[in-house]
Amino acid sequence: MLMVETINIDKRLRESSRIHEVDLKNIAFGRVYSDHMFCADYKDGKWQNFTIQPYEYLKFTPGAAVLHYAQSIFEGLKAYRADNGDILVFRPEMNFKRLNISAERMCIPTLPEEIFMGGLVELLKTDRHWVPDAPGTSLYIRPYIFATDEYIGIRPSDQYKFIIFTCPVGAYYSKPVKVKIETHYTRAAEGGTGFAKAAGNYAASLYPAKLAQQRGYDQLIWTDGKTHEYIEESGTMNVMFIIDDTLITPSTGDSVLKGITRDSILTLARSWGMKVEERKLSVKEVISAIREKRLVEAFGTGTAATIAHIELISHNDEEFVLPKSHEGSFSNRIANTLNDIKTGKAEDPYNWIMSI
Ligand SMILES: *Cc1c(COP(=O)(O)O)cnc(C)c1O
Description:
Blueprint: E1 10-11, E2 36-43, E3 46-54, H1 65-69, E4 72-74, E5 77-81, E6 87-90, H2 92-105, H3 113-126, E7 138-147, E8 160-169, E9 177-181, H4 199-214, E10 219-223, E11 231-234, E12 238-243, E13 246-250, H5 260-271, E14 275-279, H6 283-291, E15 295-302, E16 306-315, E17 318-321, H7 330-342, E18 353-355
Parallel strand pairs: 1-3, 9-10, 9-16, 13-14
Antiparallel strand pairs: 2-3, 2-8, 4-7, 5-6, 5-7, 6-18, 7-8, 10-11, 12-13, 12-15, 15-16, 16-17
Bound molecules: pyridoxal-5'-phosphate.
């Protein structure tokens, strides 16, 4: 990775780490925060005030634009501890690029690479002892930007805050999920903001997800907003199906989030000689494949779980039980390979790892 410029970061560090207060062997996802965060402010037309400071409460006005109009975007990535103690970050430049794609859509000023990468590397160096080393654990990294203007009215803010904080996370026991194909509510419309990791998208998805959970499903499979006939993604994961010997996943367009896990899996699958199709995939096609016993497996893909097997799909009040995954399943093999690359146990043929 070539970074021509570097940034000057002011550091205000804790006198002592809080890490002894935490049982790193037993952590709930998203509940435990490392000692420090990286912050930057956008004002007077440029990003400035680069600091690493304790993770602590922020001060901002009740009139802050983000609280009213959700001008806010985020990213999620992970760092892993290699056997030799190195800290390995998985494809951070992809998150950097996607953050700026989201920024553009939400009228948020884009972030120069040296600020994203410089802040990330310095933060990870500062809190490197927070990267857990037990199998399956990692450090979840959350970069985000939000509007801070004190202004009640709809227009892009003039001021923003960029923050990166990190959370050690435990082994993610991805138990198979039951999903419902959603044919009434819409996550993302054509021309909308579905391809952006924009805060409001997630608020809007809560209610339909809650209704499905009340009926015993873990997640929804979202369909297109126009016809509800085509599969888009699952919860906050992309979704993949193996039908006969082909790996099929919906093409992305502007209503599907372009997952980095998705891209990584497609790249590996192609390199293994697997048939891969990124295309429109109808609910009908999936249901017929299940009925004809040609559906081999179905799973969601994302940074949090890597892979979540789907064990049951409900569509129009009819439930379909899917084949069980096993040791040799494609999804298990790909999850293991990805995990070995991320933790430095396997070769990294695509230069996905940034080592710190
Ligand atoms: C973040 C996200 C994903 C998965 O993306 P990854 O880069 O693989 O973590 C998929 N769908 C939605 C809606 C998301 O927000």
